[in-house]
Design goal:
With 104 residues, the chain is an alpha+beta fold. The protein has four helices and four strands, in the order βαβααββα. Strands 2-1-3-4 form a four-stranded mixed sheet, sandwiched between helices.
Length: 104
Amino acid sequence: MFTVYGSEMCPDCVALKLNFDTYGIEYRFIDINKDLHDLAAFLAMRDGDPVFDRCREIHDIGLPALVRADGTVFLSWEKYLEEKGLAVLVPENGGACSIDHKGC
């Protein structure tokens, strides 16, 4: 089971939830906008884990962030699905959260 740090306002997080729910992948979703403790935990992880280096360089938030049971963090949920032979489903409403509308 994964722990997923995300936000209900993040289109990529919404897409992850659609895909994981559809494929029956177990996860616990932590919405960092609902609790300051959860936001602080995410920021501590983001500030200290090298997996977020590129995100910090390009001023990306780094959501959704997936944490495996062993504590390792990864960001590419799409790649995870593809490696399992599953197609990535795109929500009908789609969208992007960046200012240039090219991603999150």
